Amino acid sequence: MGEELAMDLEELRQLQSISKRPRVLSLISSQIRSLEMELTKDPVPASTPAPTPISTGVKVPATSSVNYTTLASFSWDQDSDKVKIYVSLEGVEQEKIETEFRPMSFDIKFHDVQGKNYRLTVPKLNKEIAPEKSKVLVKPRRVIITLFKTSKGNWLDLHFKEDKLKPNLDKDRDPMAGIMDLMKNMYDEGDDEMKRTIAKAWTDARSGKTADPLKGYP
């Protein structure tokens, strides 16, 4: 049973690494956490150990029903070594914070804050962090979350965002596939007029009304 759960967990992590949409990432992360809790009940054999997140603070039983209010509003800044996230939240007690830092994500829960429970999670960060160094500091009117980068440099965003226009450098790949991927991304993210234009171009190309875009290309 433990081996099966470990295999499921590994496959979910692979899906997480290639997923792009925030809602999909959130759903996958939720399922990963669920499997990880199952693995704590059914330990994985020593040959396939499950990664252990860096967790601190209060522990809530897996069977308890706890409702959380998502903290969607926060600010952040950075230097070459770390990222700081600022959350405006009063009444937080350090000993009632549950944290889980991973190389590419974090999940922080604030319990019993003026009678409510709050949660801030980023399922996939822009780049890797050092979980063992990351921390949460409570101030009178706000909370500061510090994430230490594993490599120096600036992040363009807090969340991971794949460059959909970045060319695929796989030499063995069909050159037409890159164009088709680009058209698909433009269709998915375009407005109604863009979608109609792309759909027409696609239909004309398949019916032979337009020339092959690669014809005559060396």
Automatic annotation (TrEMBL):
Protein name: Calcyclin-binding protein
GO molecular function: S100 protein binding; tubulin binding; ubiquitin protein ligase binding
Keywords: Acetylation, Cytoplasm, Nucleus, Phosphoprotein, Ubl conjugation pathway
Keyword Acetylation attached: yes
A GO term from the CC aspect: nucleus
Compartments (UniProt record): Cytoplasm; Nucleus
Annotated GO biological process: response to stress
Protein's job: May be involved in calcium-dependent ubiquitination and subsequent proteasomal degradation of target proteins. Probably serves as a molecular bridge in ubiquitin E3 complexes. Participates in the ubiquitin-mediated degradation of beta-catenin (CTNNB1).
Domain CS: 69-159
UniProt-listed PROSITE patterns: CS, SGS
Domain SGS: 144-218
